Amino acid sequence: MTTAERPPILDRLHDLLVVLLLALRPLCWDGAAGQPADIVWQALATAAFLLVAVERAAGLRPSWAWSWRGIAGLALLAALLPAILRSPEPAPAWSFWTGLAASLAAAAYIAQVVVDRTALVWSALGAGLAVTAIFGVAQPLVVLPAMAEAQKAGAGVFAALPMDGSAVAERIANGGAFATFTLANQFGAYLALVIPVLAAMAWRSAGTARWTAAIVAAAGGAALAATGAKG
Predict the structure, then answer these.
(1) Can you tell me whether residue 213 is helix, strand or coil?
(2) Which of 44, 107, 166, 211 sits 20 to 30 Å CA-CA off 16?
């Protein structure tokens, strides 16, 4: 199949989409499916996937990159569908399923455009880790003490929470850093996945890139310790 000439603006658009999808993912997903920020991210992932599909149909892409991992992910998504359809609580179930579908769409999209963008992909991952690590380190030092004082003072925002005040105080005192996530364990799982990637970047890079990756990985390690995550 002959590949048509690609408008240069498409390459810049793909650069932007890669950065947004990877850097914003930990900032948009707080562990509770169906949140507005997560829906926006899902829409962005779907739009990015549709963009490369249109490019392929228009002859702007010579081939479609795929692997057995993508096929396995698609099969798992399909296998979950009957349970989603029979769920007694359709809204949370569909929010969970669409979140998985959007993540698979984002992975498929990045697989199509990653060629010549490897450094951009790693940098976007590092940017997301850097921001969440700053939140994770700052929370025990600044945010959580302020929340504890506000909770003791009877701030209205805590009164509106659907849980007992003593449980809220316990969560603040011993729940650990959670950054942009709902729970510290969720944040810890994210860090455990991404920190090794940044450590590998530091090992394989040189100069400024090596030191930047090493510093971000170290900050991620400090945030991981602050989560008190139990696996």
Answers:
(1) helix
(2) 211
- Of 187, 84, 185, whose CA–CA distance to 132 is shortest? 187
- Which of 225, 193, 228 lies closest to 26, judged by CA? 193
- Rounded to whole angstroms, the Cα distance separating 152 from 41 reads 35
DSSP label of 7: P
Tokens encoding 143: 């945010």
More confident residue, 52 or 29: 52
Q: What is the pTM of this model?
A: 0.85
Average pLDDT for 92-106 = 92
Spatial neighbors of 18 by CB under 8 A, at least 6 apart, are 110, 113, 117, 120, 121, 124
Q: Name every residue whose Cβ is closer than 8 Å to that of residue 43 and which is 6 or more positions away in sequence.
A: none
